[in-house]
Amino acid sequence: xxxxxxxxxxxxxxxxxxxxxxxxxxxxxxxxxxxxxxxxxxxxxxxxxxxxxxxxxxxxxxxxxxxxxxxxxxxxxxxxxxxxxxxxxxxxxxxxxxxxxxxxxxxxxxxxxxxxxxxxxxxxxxxxxxxxxxxxxxxxxxxxxxxxxxxxxxxxxxxxxxxxxxxxxxxxxxxxxxxxxxxxxxxxxxxxxxxxxxxxxxxxxxxxxxxxxxxxxxxxxxxxxxxxxxxxxxxxxxxxxxxxxxxxxxxxxxxxxxxxxxxxxxxxxxxxxxxxxxxxxxxxxxxxxxxxxxxxxxxxxxxxxxxxxxxxxxxxxxxxxxxxxxxxxxxxxxxxx
Length: 337
Ligand SMILES: O=C(O)CCC(=O)C(=O)O
What we know:
Blueprint: E1 40-42, H1 48-62, E2 64-68, H2 74-88, H3 92-96, E3 107-111, E4 125-130, H4 134-137, H5 148-173, H6 180-185, E5 189-197, E6 209-212, E7 218-223, E8 230-234, E9 237-240, E10 248-252, H7 254-259, E11 269-271, E12 279-287, E13 293-294, E14 312-313, H8 314-322
Parallel strand pairs: 1-2
Antiparallel strand pairs: 2-10, 3-4, 4-5, 5-12, 6-11, 7-10, 7-12, 8-9, 8-11, 13-14
Helix pairs in contact: 1-5, 2-5
This protein binds 2-oxoglutaric acid.
2-oxoglutaric acid binds next to strand 5, strand 11 and strand 12.
């Protein structure tokens, strides 16, 4: 029910019981390290071999990197975040029309992660949209604010193009043909999560989004420029991914970990909240088509590196992912040979 949303109603003064994590699962914010080592890759560099080696290192050791000079118009990124903010300030009755806690729904405004499964909630509302093909979905997207459909569909087109460029570079960086990954993933679906993390009265007791890996192939995240919140796990330590001017954050999803036979990492990441500022983020997910058969690339397996994962369809994987809660083992563990 729509009254579950955090973005309706007045700001809370105390954290409701249902959001409080047990002591051992809290974010321990003071132990989080700065992001000094998260790679930042300039995509405008002429030297392709340099870009590829940076991507290779980033995907192997971090599973995350930031990109700058990526070609996405700065004005569009600003507009996308502005429309996201406007959306979450719509009157409750508008938002109620879109509310659903059914993860199978392709257009839904929801809260936390999967309230049907979880025992403790996350301090987040989100609008989840299917985005490809645009002509199928735009007519059923929210019609308010008035420029929502136009801004978001323009952003989706740009993000898709950028995502394909990155998939080509990732393929090459693995020693595969440039179009290898694109061919395996088939006619890719594209989903979006527009995340809204309100100010939180007790951020040290809860998460905006608890640790998870992404079930898809590649994620492109547009972050709030002023408010940090994303953290990545590296060597058992949480590292902050600080927003950089006009940068986008890229992370490898579970499908690329499987396809690369574990060379590239789909790493745990989480979003934390803070007490004085709300935060917006926009995650775009490139996903294999449902029937795509994912398995480690032959070229990356053989003597000394046997295939770690069995073949599976994305449909099988995605259903498994959403049937579980986030605080379980890496979903790929269930697809090991
Ligand atoms: O808000 C963020 O920084 C992370 C969002 C995220 O991980 C997601 O939407 O899956």
